[in-house]
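Question thread 4412

I'm putting together a teaching handout and wanted feedback from people who do this every day. The idea is simple: show students a protein as raw sequence, then show them the structure tokens that encode its fold, then repeat with a second protein so they can compare. Below is the first pair exactly as I plan to print it.
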Amino acid sequence: MADIRAIQLELRDRKLDGWLFFDHHHRDPIAKKLLGLGDGMVTRRWFYFIPRKGEPRKLVHRIEAGLLDSLPGKKFTYAGWEELHKNLAKILTGSKTIAMQYSPENNIPYIGLVDAGTIELIRKFKKKVVSSADLVQKFEASWSAAQYEGHLEAGRLIDKIVHEAFGRAAEFVRDGKPLTEFELQRWILEQFRLNGIVTSEPPIVAVQPNNGNPHYEPTLTAARPIRAGDLLMLDVWGKLQRPGSVYYDITWVGYLGSRVPDSYAKIFRIVKNARNAAVELVKSAIANGKPIHGWEVDRAARDTIRKAGYAKYFVHRTGHSIGEETHGNGANMDSLETRDDRKIAPHTCFSVEPGIYLPEFGVRSEVNVHVSDHEARVTGAIQEEILPLLA
């Protein structure tokens, strides 16, 4: 359940009058998680308001009157829409500026979960609605010490599996045995099962030209065979099979040959330099106590690739927040798809994964960066060059 006292202290620090949670048919998973709600029926609108001081207030429909009984606060109920409007105004009494899961212009889609009509209704009561993005980052995207240790443990297992997958591909090619992208993907998933790792989606296993597609998905019927001379990219993410665990998410590339061709090595060096520029910017800012925003990190990587002449081939953001879901609710490293102006918060983690995607092949290098109070660090192994798998 949410720490009401901690939320109220944060609301006061941010000069906000309250945080209004709203849901209907489980539209808002952030509200469910932060408030510790179960999977029960939510066929009617409910509201839960945490004011900066005083007792929380809740508004529920009479046929689902017990929906928020696990939460503290005074309960209001409604049946008709007129009564809903009347009691919603009551629970917001004394407030002017209210945080909700709202993002201006839907700039941060992970946060923009409240529908426009509900926002209009709140504004009708003369309330100013602001984004809860920074509150969500603090109370939902921040890791505990146990989660961080679990991330490191998952990372050690996944790093090992990735390198074993490269070894398996090399063995099959060396022995002249057939192996497809899909078959190697299935093998990785089996290693996950054996090692207590779970994942929301299967890993990306791609040889050229498929690795030129950032979100390529091999299938049984469409996967390409892995052969000598192929550039093999593995994008693998997973977490420990235990409650509250968080993801580890990396991308490595290997070459099915003894000497990596210059054309591949050149692109990897540019991507590596972009990755390093982003990571070093974060490390420096955190070490010196300077605020840094997600868009700035993206810009550092993107400028490196732009200066090398490949800007149009870097088609996604530099990184995403990592949490109990692969894509978490903290700051993203993004100045392309959005301009994520959230400050990177302590005890959060994110990926740094620039890539260049050409028609003939693509290269991506991905690491995870965890930020503590005074330090930022890459949490796993760091690839410095394309691995020659048949050396």
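The second pair follows. I'd like the answer to focus on this one:
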Amino acid sequence: MREFMRLALRLGLLVCIAALTGCASTRLIDSDVRSFRTGSLDLAAASYQFERLPSQQADAAAQTEREHWATPVLQRVGLTLASQSPRYTLQLGVATEQVPRNDQFFPRRWNGFPLGPVFAAPPMLWPLEPSLYRFQVQVLLRDAQNREVVYEASAQHTGPWSDQAHILPAVLLAAMRDFPNQASGPSNVKVEIGPLGMELRP
């Protein structure tokens, strides 16, 4: 029993160290992406202003922060924030939630169950497993004149990191990878976060 407690403490320490050093290391963020082009896009005048839903207006401080980190990512794909007379309006939706740990990430084989051996984490070690977090980003680009949606993109990532300031921009970059074209279908896009910033990976 004493050896088991030592092992549990060591595992807990390793998890804490990984959580504390995760932001400083290079990370590969993989996102499930879908994008659609539903109209013509004038990239020569691809200026935009953010458009907010009533719920986003009610939490203006949080939405302003999201738009702040989203602006350089959108600039990177060719969209320029305009102070007035934009060609397009852009609606940015963001959701973050902690999700139940999925044992497929940490499978183990355990014997002694009535129906035979199973692959799962033992209940005694569940608190030591890292939590998982789901990040979702959606972009709707509308023609500012006729209000038609001309481009839609969304991406979702689930992983052990909770630092939104780093993960959400990477998920947005993945969502906009194919802009101004649409993806041929659902795809998995990888973005590497490192000391020098973010880079798309094959």
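Top answer:
Good format. For the second protein you could add a caption like this: The first strand starts at residue 27 and ends at 37. The beta strands are 27-37, 47-51, 80-81, 88-99, 109-110, 118-119, 132-143, 149-159, 187-194, 197-201.
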